[in-house]
Amino acid sequence: MSWSWHGYLAPLSMALWLLGVLMAIKKRPWLAFWLTLAGTLVTGLFIAGLWVRLERPPMRTMGETRLWYSFFLSGAGALAYARRRFAWLLIFGCLLASVFAVINVVKPELHSKALMPALQSPFFIPHVTSYMLSYAVLAASALASALQLRKISAAGVPDKSLDDFIDSSVRTGLGLLMLGLLTGAAWAKEAWGHYWSWDPKETWALVTAAAFLAYLHLRRSPPRGAGRRLALLAPPLGLVMLMITWLGVSYLPAAMGSVHIY
Amino acid sequence: MIASPEACLEGAPSASQAASRSARPMWRRPWGYPESLVVVGAILAGGLTAEWLLGPPPPLVWPGSLFAALGLAAAAVAGWLGRRGRLARFFSSTPLSVALISAVGLLSLLMGLTPQAVPYPSPSATLGLGAKLGLNHLTASWPLTAVYLTTLLSLGAVVTVRFSRRRPAFVLTHLGLWLLLVAAGVGAGDRAREIMRVPEGGLEWRVMRSGGEIVEMPLAIRLDDFDLEEYPARLALIDHATGQPQTADGRLELWQIDPLEPRGKLGDFDLELLTFLPKAVSVDKDTYVQTVASAAVQAAKLKATSRSTGESYEGWVSTGESFRPPQPLKLGDGWLLAMTRPEPRRFVSKVKVFTQEGVEVEDTIEVNKPLKIGSWAIYQRDYDSGAGRSSSWSGFELVKDPWLPMANAGLALLSAGSLAMIVTGRRRAG
Predict the structure, then answer these.
(1) For the segment B316-352, what is each residue's pLDDT rounded down to a tens digit?
(2) From the centroid of its chain, how far is CA A62?
């Protein structure tokens, strides 16, 4: 399955996601779940086909990481919807997944088979997948925090089920982020001789982790006055840092000579 | 102040408590957020002042690093002994953690936004304000060192004072992070990395440092063979008049040779791959044959048809080699079709390593597969990329890190803690 198939399969995924979202709005939860999941599986099928065709994991270029992000975002949205019935989560997951699918259709990048020797490592796949999965989960936690902040300023009290969701998604997302960081460290040790070298992408991943760590700690014992609101600011801030880590680092003057430019 | 849902959280004051405590003066115990922020702010200010007055901190080396690590461990144990005391409580408190996380985040943000330089420029260089305060070499500066040390003291106290068998994720992440940060930070001065270039067939035991200083190593490497495997090359169109390659939207337009997909488009031309030889030698300009020799080139026979004029051209293109220039295919008067330098798939050095202790090891070294011998690990670094497959030397990086076992233990615990966090994600935070 070559990259040109994406032009047909991406619209199919997006159509299924759109139907899933419509069913969620019409309060047909199981139909919504299965339609969304079908869209995710179509994207997953394309990733698998591309993997076979390229004879390497499709995780090297920005376009390829966007595929995984679409896959995980819509999948996480569907699963979280099945568990908690947050329609906004499904809508958000599918919308963002579609945005990245459209970027890949409009602006496909050079997709060669070449995988440089440093990337040929057993750590490559766990490193990239745990990051992409954590990005999806943490993005959901940031949106939920923003919703919660709005609820607090409108109603004065936070929503209990949203609170639970934010707590568990930050824990899961941060755990995955740490696993991405640690597999990266172990890999760097095998490839370059040191597990941490202040590469700009590493530095920004640390800033991202710090924001979500701040949430978990502030949640334990909120300061007086600002209360819960201060903690709720951390995930949206963390999402901004995360997007800089993933997409923005390449454009920063500090990133000259980074091993993560692709 | 928001009331009810926080009341169930540990340490969260209820609305009435908050009202009565809102007039609490600074520095009354137990210290909370205001005091933590002031303490961490003072530590940062102290770091900046130290940098201004003293210059960058000297690297900590053995046995100083060992004493520092033992001191940090002793501080953690002392925290446990005095766990009811004010100091241990403050160092293991959540407000101090938040203040330290914010400081680390802030310093990292600064590092992520501004290019970082070497900490010890030449004495004659005039230093700007940022350099004097350590802000352009943060990783080796007093401000980061001060925050790092305070973080280690705090983490050590958190682990010992708040240890609980019922919270495996909490203990594993904090203990793992403590071990990793001690090994990485305190052990930094004991790490050594040297670059050694060995000629094919030759023996080398010296390394050259960046200043041009030549140092003898306790081990020697003999390079018996260097082998490079390449991906199929890509093709580019070169403008005959300017010598510039064809671009589209500012990016080089390239066509990947792929026997599975023999047809494609490049610029104005439809291309068809007729033959591809990954290792070839030329008999003459129009004949290439397959070979196993290491000094081989990639060669492809192609047919190119111009979409605007309908004219078609057929012939060989090849990559160059040290004694032979690359062969392009002329497409009329306007364009040349040429192969770009192929990307390496794998490069391997077959070596024999001798140590001063008389140990001899014969093995291969490649990227992601270093050779460990004694206290050193030897990494494949580079080769003569201009010569490609016929590179006459191989570059190695020699790395020594006596603190690696501790760092690995920290990595393992932190990974287990992260997994535990994911598994217990459904439970309430804290």
Answers:
(1) 999 887 667 888 999 988 899 999 888 888 989 999 9
(2) 13
Alpha carbon of B107: minimum distance to chain A alpha carbons (Å)? 9
Among A187, A141, A194, CA closest to A164: A141
Question: How many distinct structural domains can be found in chain A?
Answer: 2
The 3-state DSSP class for residue B150 equals helix
Q: What is the pLDDT of residues B258-317, one digit of tens each?
A: 887 888 888 889 999 999 998 888 887 788 888 887 678 899 999 999 998 999 999 999
User: Which class for B129: exposed (0-12), middle (13-18), buried (19 or more C-beta within 10 A)?
Assistant: exposed
**In the structure encoding, which two tokens stand for residue A128, read together?**
């990239």
Residues A22 and A76 in one domain: yes
Residue A55 has a pLDDT of: 83
Residues of chain A with C-beta less than 8 angstroms from the C-beta of B112: 200, 203-204, 207, 244, 249, 252, 254
Task: Give a yes or no: residue A115 inside a domain.
Answer: no
Exposure string over A159-194, b if 16+ CB within 10 A, otherwise e: beebbbbbbbbbbbbbbbbbbbbbbbbbbbbbbbbb
Same-domain status, A154 and A261: yes
Query: Using a CB-CB distance cutoff of 8 angstroms, which residues of chain B are in contact with residue A187?
Result: 368
Indicate the residue among A77, A108, A139 that finishes a domain. Answer: A108
Q: Which residue has the higher pLDDT, A254 or A210?
A: A210
A with B: how many residue pairs have Cβ under 8 Å apart?
192
Residue B427 near residue B420 (C-beta atoms within 8 A): no
Whether residue A119 is contained in a domain is answered as no
- Which amino acid makes up residue A51? W
* Helices of type H across B55-190: 64-81, 86-91, 94-113, 129-132, 142-161, 168-181
With respect to residue A171, please indicate whether it lies within any of the assigned structural domains. Answer: yes
Interface contact flag, A221 B367, Cβ < 8 Å: no
Residue B371: the pLDDT is 95
Considering the entire predicted model, what is its pTM? Answer: 0.85
Which ipTM did the prediction report? Answer: 0.85
Q: Positive or negative CA dihedral for A139, A143, A149, A151?
A: negative
**Structural domain range at position A190:** 124-262
CB contact under 8 A, A182 and B415: yes
